[in-house]
Design a protein that fits this description.
It comes from Alteromonas australica. By secondary structure, the protein is of the alpha/beta class. The protein has 11 helices and 15 strands. Helix content is 31%, strand content 27%.
């Protein structure tokens, strides 16, 4: 089968599109014929050796897929061959087939297009876990989302609204803000044209944010860290802007708020049951029209490097998908 292969950490352009052996179902696993795979910011970090996880070589990147089960491993009884599914693959998604633990495979409702299903697993699930398990977001609270037009930021906007929050979207362009507004943002802030700290103070009437979903880093993080409410929750999701900020811990002491790391991948491994329950809730919301995956572009598998670079350069509104 064809796959995108990383033989050594390095530039994204070093990835190879080539033939590899088909996966075989091991006990407790299934093999999925991949019809679409989501492209995520961590994929680009991973192949450059800049991510928390550093797999053995060679490996195939890609951690979320949608497709059809073509083989069942021993002990798998809740799934069947020919079933339409979405799955968290961790690795191996950028390929024509992927072997995936059955605990991380879920039926895909007929109402959801395969491209949207593939792009639902990571970005929306990260936002859902962050706002539900980590921040315990409550109806009526104020949620600030940075990078609110990207894959996971736009997901946080939608999920925050579904959970009853007032959502403040923070983006770098008016075009991106318009997309965030379309999907539920109540207040829009262009941080390139406005002082973010002062504007957050103004729109929260001096109270500050109850929850911040922060996935940009750098100066954006610093502004948010000074804009928290008493007993607020500052969620550290990622650093799409490139700079990992240093946090002055006295701010948490004086303002009485919490800084919470969000590592969804670790959550899925530590609590697979909780992951499955979260995904079922997300899929229900999706069918009900409460959340939606915005697919910026779907490209052939052999163009995966271009898709990854577009994501890394923050040129995507919503999600990118590769299609074997």
């Amino acid at each position: 089968m064809k796959a995108i292969v990383c033989d050594a950490f390095g530039p994204i352009d070093d990835l190879q599109y080539k033939d590899v052996a088909d996966p075989v179902a091991e006990p407790g696993h299934v093999v999925v014929n991949v019809e679409a795979a989501g492209v995520n910011f961590p994929d680009g970090l991973l192949v450059q050796g800049l991510y928390q996880m550093q797999p053995d070589f060679p490996f195939v990147p890609g951690n979320e897929v949608a497709g059809t089960i073509v083989e069942l491993g021993e002990g798998v009884s809740h799934l069947h061959i020919g079933q339409r599914v979405i799955a968290l693959s961790n690795l191996g998604g950028y390929a024509e087939k992927a072997r995936i633990a059955a605990t991380h495979v879920l039926p895909l409702p007929d109402a959801i297009h395969v491209n949207e299903g593939a792009a639902l697993v990571t970005a929306h699930a990260t936002a859902h876990h962050a706002l539900k398990q980590r921040a315990k977001l409550q109806p009526g609270e104020t949620l600030v989302v940075t990078g609110a037009a990207g894959g996971t930021g736009l997901a946080a906007v939608q999920i925050g609204k579904t959970m009853g929050a007032k959502v403040i979207a923070v983006c770098s362009t008016e075009e991106k803000l318009a997309l965030a507004k379309e999907y539920g943002a109540d207040v829009l802030i262009n941080y390139k044209e406005n002082d973010l700290k002062e504007t957050l103070k103004e729109v929260t009437e001096g109270k500050g944010a109850d929850v911040v979903y922060e996935c940009v880093g750098g100066d954006t993080f610093h502004a948010c860290s000074r804009s928290m409410s008493w007993e607020g929750r500052l969620l550290v999701v990622g650093f799409a802007g490139g700079e990992i900020p240093k946090f002055p811990v006295n701010l948490a002491l004086v303002k009485g708020y919490s800084v919470m790391g969000v590592f969804w991948g670790a959550f899925t491994q530590h609590d697979p049951k909780g992951f499955a329950q979260n995904m079922q809730e997300l899929l229900t919301w999706y069918v009900q029209g409460k959340v939606k995956v915005v697919v910026d572009e779907a490209v052939p598998l052999h163009q995966a490097t271009q898709a990854m670079k577009k994501v890394m350069n923050r040129e995507v509104k919503g999600k990118m998908v590769v299609v074997p």
